[in-house]
Specification:
The protein is of the alpha+beta class. The chain has five helices and four strands, in the order H-H-H-E-H-E-E-H-E. The chain has a four-stranded antiparallel beta sheet with strand order 2-3-1-4.
């Protein structure tokens, strides 16, 4: 799908503020409200706009510590991977999980209140996930920056 400069502007504005009204968005990108609405619906329908969310403050909700955990499984059989992925997805403190290449099988981002909270999650939850052979944890000292806005290319393969 080819995106023109108006599509790129719409996507950029929506990434900055997903709560803009259609009229506000139309004004910002230089379209009529009806033309803007059609374009947004097309972008949503194509899957480029995945969803709309509110980004909450981790610290304000008492989850100010980020821990990155590399997980090595006892094997890489399809069933082992599937069982691990289903189980880790059910852990509310786990914010992201990636299947990795290299030494570890997964990289998991966990949000916790403090070191004691992480110790509990490590002992009671992570270490008992299906197939887990080894966990290595690294605590983030501080976030340097975080982005939610993706760069928008002019051409997207859908």
């Amino acid at each position: 799908m080819l995106l023109d400069s108006v599509d790129v502007s719409i996507l950029t504005e929506l990434q900055d503020n997903g709560r803009l009204t259609n009229a506000e968005l139309a004004e910002r990108v230089g379209l009529s409200p009806s033309a803007c609405h059609r374009r947004v619906k097309t972008l949503e329908g194509s899957g480029i706009v995945d969803r709309y969310v509110a980004i909450l403050s981790e610290a304000a909700l008492g989850r100010g510590i980020t821990v990155y955990v590399t997980v090595t499984l006892d094997n890489q059989k399809h069933d082992t991977l599937q069982h691990f992925e289903a189980a880790v997805q059910a852990v509310p403190e786990v914010m992201e999980c990636y299947l990795m290449s290299g030494e570890a099988d997964y990289l998991v981002r966990v949000l916790v209140r403090d070191a004691n909270d992480y110790e509990r999650i490590h002992r009671e939850v992570l270490s008992s996930l299906p197939g887990v052979a080894r966990l290595m944890s690294s605590f983030a000292i501080r976030r340097v920056f975080s982005r939610t806005n993706l760069p928008v290319p002019n051409e997207v393969n859908i």
